[in-house]
Amino acid sequence: VNPPIEAFFDPVTETVSYIVFDAINGHAAIIDPVLDFDPKSGRTSTLQIDRIGAFLKQRGLRVDWILETHAHADHLSAAAHLQQQFGGKIGIGAAIGQVQHIFKKIFNLEPDFPEDGRPFDHLFAADEIFQIGGLQAKVLAVPGHTPADIAYQIGDAVFVGDTLFMPDVGTARCDFPGGSAAVLFQSIRKLLALPAATRLFMCHDYAPATRPPQWETTVAAQRADNIHIHEGISEAAFVTMRNARDATLEMPRLILPSIQVNIRAGHLPTSEANGVSYLKIPINAL
């Protein structure tokens, strides 16, 4: 089965969001949607999800699921905004509770902030099967970038989140709290054990200047050409490379606002007495 897929690239965060849909029955899932955020003014906007909404309306699609591959550190999730407009359940990997626990401490969040996966509507277990209309989807646990990363296998397509990038960009960093280069290596090897023709869809493309953004590749292309983890690279060599590289990387530009929103399923922090929602900036904590 080759499910129809529509991609939406956000040039500001270099994120790719997707709509996967059952064209016969009119059911759809949205994967990794982006809420526009200006860190200078603290204002949100809906340019990216307006594009998604226009496509849904044009095709007459009903949203069954809004799927997150993990709690992103580079963009704010628009899951809650889309759910208000189009319905559907917001889903993420069951290990999101670990991520909530880690960042509740870092941000000193309110005492009743949940560490059990709330307010997500559904927490996916490894290898769980679910439906998008007539399409069958399977959850693949791919931790390493964070403890809670999952990928979604739908027909011949796999949405890999931040485990892999395009072959000429490599792999995800592992230096966030709870990350592990050794665990990521095993997760990627699981993905690359899929049939060679399997289509892999990236969550980001940090494209070199020599080409335009791209987000679709194959297992065969990754095995042959991924600059970090092509065939023949040992776990020890990968871990050494990944840890050394991570030590040189700056924090993502939007990590502080993003995490606080994304561990809340895309909801902003509860408004204070003046009706304004606030995000925290921990000083010298990361």
Short recap of the structure:
42% of the residues are buried. The chain has helices at residues 47-59, 79-86, 96-107, 181-192, 219-225, 235-246, 255-262, and strands at 5-10, 15-22, 27-31, 34-38, 43-45, 62-67, 76-77, 89-93, 122-124, 129-132, 135-141, 150-154, 157-159, 199-201, 216-218. With 286 residues, the protein is an alpha/beta fold.
Question: Helices and strands, in N-to-C order?
Answer: EEEEEHEEHEHEEEEEHEEHHH
Report the span from N to C terminus.
44 Å
- Identify the overall geometry: globular
Main beta sheet strand tally, sense and closure = 6 strands, mixed
Average pLDDT rating: 95
Contiguous helical run count: 7
Q: Which segments are poorly predicted (pLDDT under 50) over 5 or more consecutive residues? A: none
Describe what you observe in this structure.
The chain has helices at residues 47-59, 79-86, 96-107, 181-192, 219-225, 235-246, 255-262, and strands spanning 5-10, 15-22, 27-31, 34-38, 43-45, 62-67, 76-77, 89-93, 122-124, 129-132, 135-141, 150-154, 157-159, 199-201, 216-218. The strands form three sheets. The protein has a six-stranded mixed beta sheet with strand order 1-2-3-6-8-9, with helices on one face. A six-stranded mixed beta sheet has the order 10-11-12-13-14-15. It has a three-stranded antiparallel beta sheet with strand order 5-4-7. It is α/β, with parallel strands linked by helices and 286 residues long. The chain contains seven helices and 15 strands. The termini are far apart.
